[in-house]
Design brief:
By secondary structure, the chain is of the alpha+beta class. The protein has a five-stranded antiparallel sheet with strand order 3-7-6-5-4. The chain has a two-stranded antiparallel ribbon with strand order 1-2. A hairpin with a 4-residue loop joins strand 4 and strand 5. The N and C termini lie far apart (about 90 Å).
Length: about 220
């Protein structure tokens, strides 16, 4: 009889502990939801994934389906890209690839980007990075509306540290950029750009310069 009593008491304690654990999990889940809603999304509201609380617009992997010409875009990169980047490398990395990247540091050492943007950077003027295939605007530095946006110096320092241009949420043209499951970052026209590799301050879009060296679509 004593053994059964101890077992019953132990079971009661276990049930209470389980209920407490469930209550804690529900409470934490509710807190996370509330925090996500209050934090919102950096960008321009619902168009930028505000409803998801992610800071980006999620995309479907189907948008990267290989087309008849063997590319994910259905057409090759522009023949004359900015900053003297190689169109052949752009074709290989941006339209026929889902995993690999240009060489680390090549955005500085293998292009004229730093020289070509020197005046804009010194004067704090915004530069827009366009899709190397379609010409769509994808990223802008400085981002946001100018209030609290990163400086050019901060952008360059972080990008050099990681080896590739590294953009933050308010520097993304969200209507033209999607993030697929696994973090692959692409344009809405199927150009592989790089990957979202979140860092301490949030999302960080680690992007190949050869994929964002296009000329504006309206030029």
């Amino acid at each position: 009889g004593g053994h059964d009593g101890r077992g019953f008491r132990a079971m009661s304690v276990s049930i209470k502990a389980a209920r407490f654990g469930i209550a804690m999990i529900v409470g934490i889940g509710l807190l996370v939801v509330l925090r996500s809603k209050s934090a919102g999304t950096v960008g321009d509201g619902s168009r930028t994934g505000g409803g998801f609380g992610l800071g980006f617009v999620p995309g479907d992997a189907g948008m990267m389906t290989t087309k008849k010409d063997g590319t994910s875009t259905g057409s090759p990169p522009m023949s004359r890209l900015l900053w003297d980047v190689d169109a052949k490398v752009a074709d290989r990395i941006c339209t026929r690839n889902r995993r690999y990247a240009e060489k680390s540091g090549s955005w500085v050492k293998g292009s004229t980007f730093m020289e070509a943007t020197e005046t804009a950077r010194r004067e704090g003027r915004r530069v827009t990075f366009h899709d190397s295939v379609s010409g769509l605007a994808l990223f802008r530095v400085p981002g946001g509306n100018g209030n609290g946006a990163r400086t050019w110096r901060e952008f360059i320092l972080e990008s050099k540290h990681h080896g590739w241009p590294s953009f933050r949420d308010d520097e993304v043209v969200h209507e033209n950029v999607r993030v697929l499951p696994g973090g692959e970052t692409v344009s809405i026209t199927g150009t592989h750009l790089g990957h979202n590799l979140p860092a301490g301050k949030g999302n960080r879009y680690c992007v190949n310069l050869v994929c964002v060296a296009g000329r504006a679509a309206d030029l």
